Amino acid sequence: MLRFWGWTEPTLVLGSSQAVANEVDLAAVERRGFGVVRRLSGGGTMLAEPGRTITWSLVTPLAPVAGMSFVASFAHLDRWALETLRSLGVDAGYRPINDIVSPTGKIAGAAQARRRGAVLHHVTMAYAMDPELLLELIRIGRPTVSEKGVRSAAKSVSPLATLSAANRTEVVAALAGSSGAAPGRLDPAELEAAAGLAAVKYARQDWIFRLP
Question: What is the distance between the alpha carbons of residues 64 and 122, in angstroms, rounded to a whole number?
């Protein structure tokens, strides 16, 4: 299943093995009106904004990546997106472990989680972003506060809007069209189950602010 979604409010998304104290400037987050959440997969902190970020998740059995190294599986599951960007005129390439890049910086980053014989592979792409805002909100390069947690790496960002004339809707349509997936919809029971998981775990402060 391939699912695209947007954001209803500006948000910082931490990886599962990060510490909020190390990653987030909470005073700046409050001043700028951002929320803070934590995903179940690893990797660094991502900045997501309504109408300015493209996010998708791919859920698949383990079979398509069987026998691949963890690093190779990232490139394999992102290849179709890379080819789509090139078809839009973007000089896109791949930087291991998990970055889609242009010659001027990072366009998107992926993260993975593997559970119960399945892979969740999801990607956050900067369609439009203020790099200065990223440095204001995320404590990249600042002193460590907590001894626990993986730190985000300092990487220059190359928003897609600076590389292609296609608008955000057109980019999503191109990605969806090139994926080879048939259009579908989420079952109401799946949405209810997701809301239940959020209530008991992923929206709780003890999950978001936990120490790894």
Answer: 16
Rg (CA), the chain: 17
pLDDT in tens, 9-31: 999 999 999 999 999 999 999 99
DSSP code of residue 152 = P
Residues forming beta bridges with residue 35, ordered by sequence position: 11
Query: Once rounded to an integer, what is the mean pLDDT over residues 190-209?
Result: 97
What amino acid occupies position 24? V
Q: Where are the alpha helices (DSSP H) in 20-128?
A: 20-23, 26-32, 70-87
Query: 160 Cβ partners below 8 Å, 6+ apart?
Result: 54, 85, 90, 107, 125, 126, 127, 128, 171
For 54, the 3-state DSSP assignment is: strand
2-208 to CATH, choices 3.40.190.10, 3.20.20.70, 3.30.930.10, 3.30.200.100: 3.30.930.10
For 181, the token pair is 């997936």
pTM of the model: 0.93
